[in-house]
């Protein structure tokens, strides 16, 4: 049990707060953009209208009794939250519920022509095929002749900052992509990261992925490097079982990213070949556990996932949402020890995250003071700061 007393769970009930703006502004914007991106029929438009009204002014409604995921959502708290405003239940819960309901509205789960059609795919593909992705891949050629440890550090950095590539964030804040970043990490345990993964390691790396495209590609490059250089013998990549938080990576996105690498020229293609053969011989496996899209903190992970992560040499936890799930989506005082709030995790874990929500732990007091003096509370949510924290 953590020695630290708990903190209040984040709700979205305070107008002017970041969680409130996500429910009141970001979700309607996402509905609008999805609606414009597809030639949906009248039934889908009506369902999107109903969702828009429900998510902004309505209450959480029960699922139809024949919904295939009824049992799962029942276990995840639906009976407790039914009848309550979306703004009055845990923010982590209402956001997940939004994506589940959005997919339902466009027919993603319903047998028929729209089943399995990812409503975010046009945005994801535009990013994957954009010039920035090609530039990032071309830059790998400059890295190719550097010593392995230098390459490793650059690729770790690339994976960390790749977390800025979050389409949900950019869809609602177009200026976010251009904001200047603060290169110094607000917490930096990268030495601990490398000491957990020394060369000639025999273990397995788990990576809990976040976004597709320009985040997943650097994640894959890091995995390829760790396999190629013998830091780990196997890797397991945890993806989402269905589209989620706009740009979260699914198996289809993994395939697209890997094909992008193998179809590239120069060093990028080499990484692609490493990963392609690693999947073929089982050195790299992918998972899409239902809990990856659960509205709950990782402290409530089911036994099978806990047992699997317990075997990992290290679990890399990518991104803001996974950080919220790792430490609990709570108003922690920023100096709350990261080791305490992650003590429940089944093994060593490394959080690689750019800061895009209020939650933060593990800062030293001077760092917090300096951030507040410079930016008020904006540093928490602007996506311009990053951290690498390791739970040993
Ligand atoms: O893609 P990431 O890094 O998990 O970020 C998810 C984003 O969505 C949010 O959950 C808000 O919707 C924030 O935590 C963050 O801005």
From TrEMBL:
Task: Give the matching Pfam families.
Answer: ARMT1-like_dom
Q: Sorted alphabetically, which keywords does the UniProt record give?
A: Hydrolase, Manganese, Metal-binding
Q: What does this protein need as cofactor?
A: Mn(2+)
Q: InterPro entries, alphabetically?
A: ARMT-1-like_metal-bd_sf, ARMT1, ARMT1-like_metal-bd
* SUPFAM superfamilies assigned to the protein according to its UniProt record, in alphabetical order: AF1104-like
- Where do the Damage-control phosphatase ARMT1-like metal-binding domain residues begin and end? 23-366
Write down the chemical reaction(s) this protein catalyses.
beta-D-fructose 6-phosphate = dihydroxyacetone + D-glyceraldehyde 3-phosphate; beta-D-fructose 1-phosphate + H2O = D-fructose + phosphate
Instruction: Identify its protein family.
Output: Belongs to the damage-control phosphatase family. Sugar phosphate phosphatase III subfamily.
Q: Which PANTHER family match?
A: DAMAGE-CONTROL PHOSPHATASE ARMT1
- Protein name from the UniProt record: Damage-control phosphatase ARMT1-like metal-binding domain-containing protein
- Which organism does this record belong to? Streptomyces pseudovenezuelae
The beginning of the lineage is: Bacteria, Bacillati, Actinomycetota, Actinomycetes, Kitasatosporales
